[in-house]
Amino acid sequence: MNTSLVITLIGADRPGLVNALAARAADCGANWMESNLAQLAGRFAGIVRLEIAMAEAGRLEAALRELETEGLHLMIERGTAAGAGSLHRALAIEIVGQDRPGIVRQISAILARHNASIDRLETRCESASFSGEPLFRARIDVHLPTSVLPASLQGELETLANELMVDLKVAPDDE
Fold this sequence. Notes:
Helices cover about 25% and strands about 45% of the residues. The protein is an alpha+beta fold. The protein folds into two domains: about 1-80, ACT domain (Alpha-Beta Plaits, 2-Layer Sandwich); about 85-170, Alpha-Beta Plaits. A four-stranded antiparallel β-sheet has the order 2-3-1-4, covered by helices on one side. A hairpin with a 2-residue loop joins β2 (about 30-40) and β3. α3 runs antiparallel to α4. It is flat. The relative contact order is 0.17. The model has no long low-confidence stretch (mean pLDDT about 90). This is Glycine cleavage system protein R. It holds the Pfam family ACT.
C-alpha cells in the first residue's frame, strides 16, 4: 500500500536544490507525482507530492529532513485519499487586468461565499506589453458543491470583474 507525502519547502535559492530533493526521494523508492516550485524574491519555495510505500515513508521523511541542515525549511505531511462526495463541478477561472492590492482577497471572498474549494491558485504580476503598467494574471481551478449553480458564481465574479475593470473567463475545467 502506498501513501503520499506532501512537502512544502522554502530556503535561499541556489543551484541543486531540486536535485537534492529528487535524489533523496529516488534513493528511498519514492515516485515524484506533482510539484509547483518557484524562485520568489530570492527564495526557493514550493510544494511537492511524493508517493511511496507506507513501509518506507518514515525513511523518506528522515532523508528529507537532512536537507534542513543545508538551510532548507521543510514541512512534511502525509496525504489522505480524496473523498468522494458532493464537490464535483470543476471550473477554471482566468483573470487578467491592471494590478492593484486586494484582487485575490475579493475573488477568494466570492469563492468562499459559494463554498467553492480551490484546487489550484496561480497568480503573477508582469509588465503590460505596451504601457509597462503592472498586469495581474490569475488562474483558479475550483470545485463547487452540487447545490451551487455555476452561473450564480459566474454572475458574482462578472460583477466584480466589471468593478475592477479586469477580463474574466469562467469555463468548465477539463480536469
